[in-house]
Design goal:
Length: 321
Amino acid sequence: MSRRVAPALLASALLAAGLTGCSGDAGPTERWQAPAEPWPAATPSPRVPAGTAPQRGFAVGVRQLKLNRDGRALPVTLWYPATGAAGGSAKRSAAAADGRFPVVMFSHGLNGRPDDYATLLTRWAAAGFVVAAPTFPHTARGGDGNVLDVLNQPADVSYALTEVLALDEKAGDPLRGRMAADRVAAAGHSAGGVTTIGLFTAGRDERLDAGVVFAGTALGVGTAFAGAAAPQLFVHGELDEVVDYAAGRAAYDKVPWPKAMLSLPKGDHGRALLSDGAALRVVSDTTVEFLRWSLYGDAAAKERIPTDAARGDIATLDDHL
């Protein structure tokens, strides 16, 4: 699935999207906007069978994988449900809880790292998901900042997903028998949102059942959503100073499957994702219920999404799930 993408047009498009400020303060950027398109009259149904998500919270374990794809170093941080009392910080290499848990692949933003999102990702793991987050070789903090390499990241995620799922059958691995390999989502913030959209368009990975896009845009990866229906949840601040809200909305409008968009009228590019607070709690609760529905098939979780989204009048929800 490896591909090299180098056209100057794509490079200028990504730069115009303002991705050079994903995880920090942003200066002035050019902004691309597109008119919203009407919601289609009928959408295909997702393929996840009906089920029930865990009702209790879990303790969380964390570990590292050292991966490499054709010379591209891809260390992966794994957060997962662990044995012990729920609450508190993630414990390194803790024993995995009993059960089979869906997998969520998370992609960080430009100049970010997976640990920046630990508060959110730990909550996902505590709700009953294995969360795998690669550190990308060029766009992570400490890399060379080559924004064009975002276009190679969907293939990185697909490779990392293959390696993570292989642990479910690896003798002696702590996660052996603990993953629901047929229930997988992709999620990402900013440049990681571009990566996530790419996994459902030009770099479609058919193993993916759902997506969560934080402050993302389709520039560079397109909006030719393909394959089986995979519900999508977009999350975007209306005051985003890096990726214009209209650009995120334009990508959302192109999704042909069940979808929803959580909009934060006072939200910026996503700094609320990096530390606990009222906005993160709304985003966390809403995304957890979305993942419970789309990966566990929990219909009751789907019914809770509008309530979680409306809490505290922090966000509004465009709901077509």
